[in-house]
Amino acid sequence: MKPFIFDARNGIHIIDLSQTLTQLEAAVEFLIVTVRKGGKVLFVGTKKQAQQCVTDTAKECGQFYVTERWLGGTMTNFNTIKTSIKRLREIEKMEADGSINNYVKQEQAVIRREVARLHKYFDGIRSMDKLPAALFVVDIKREHNAVAEACKLKIPIVALVDTNCDPDLVTYPIAANDDAIRSVRTIMATIGQAITQANAEFESKRSRRLDADQAAAPAAEGQPAPAPEAPAMPVVTPVPEAPAAPAEPLPV
């Protein structure tokens, strides 16, 4: 982090904000391009001062988030995670249609404790049916497991990098104080606005494409079928007539 430190006073490092601005612009540009292509971003921030900010930003821009403990294998063992999410939906359906009342009270209590635990860890990724296109991390030192999984799967990482972290682990580092809630909120607000705008452009483009496809389908159905070609008439070759025999002379 030495290139991103402006000065050190009384053992406190001061980050060069001019470089932070440049890094933030590069990260925003990357996220805009990613979301415009239909990719999703997974926000990760489990430290207490960042949890609410990460949750609010992710919900506002329609992305995924993890604010509780990062479960090992969340991305590298995604099939198991999808099984847990499926179980969460099954229990919620049981509560909605009242079929949970078919169990005795003790079993109902066990099921409700299970759904509370699943909701706590998987609520932010319950609609994630495939791996995200990018990862946004607050404090890569705390979220080292998430960073390791993203590196293994070659998923680009955008992260707030403090002076006690290694920026080489991140694709798009943003030098900032990840312990200050105001710093986190300022950067998250900029990221959230950019993703919201890019997502709106993607949805608008997709709706126009769907409308064009729907308009083209009836036109293709109403178009008259081409008339069948008439069969070719056979060519008759005239047969040449045989020469007439000469007339016999009459007897005298």
Give an account of the 3D structure.
The structure is a single chain. Helix 5 links the parallel strand 5 (134-138) and strand 6 (157-161). The protein is built from 6 helices and 7 strands. The model has no long low-confidence stretch (mean pLDDT 82). The longest helix is centred in the C-terminal third of the chain and has 42 residues, at 181-222. The radius of gyration is 35 Å and the shape is flat. It is α/β, with parallel strands linked by helices and 252 residues long. Strands 4-3-5-6-7 form a 5-stranded parallel sheet, with helices on both faces. Strands 1-2 form a two-stranded antiparallel sheet. The chain folds into 2 domains: 15-75 and 131-205, Glucose-6-phosphate isomerase like protein, domain 1 (Rossmann fold); 76-129, Helix Hairpins (Orthogonal Bundle), CATH 1.10.287. 48% of the residues lie in helices and 12% in strands.
Q: How many DSSP-defined strands?
A: 7
- The neighbouring-strand order within the major sheet is 4-3-5-6-7
Helix percent band = 40-55%
CATH domain class name of the largest domain: Alpha Beta
Q: What is the CATH-assigned architecture of the largest domain?
A: 3-Layer(aba) Sandwich
Annotated CATH topology of the largest domain: Rossmann fold
Main beta-sheet annotation = 5 strands, parallel
In short:
The protein is α/β, with parallel strands linked by helices and 252 residues long.
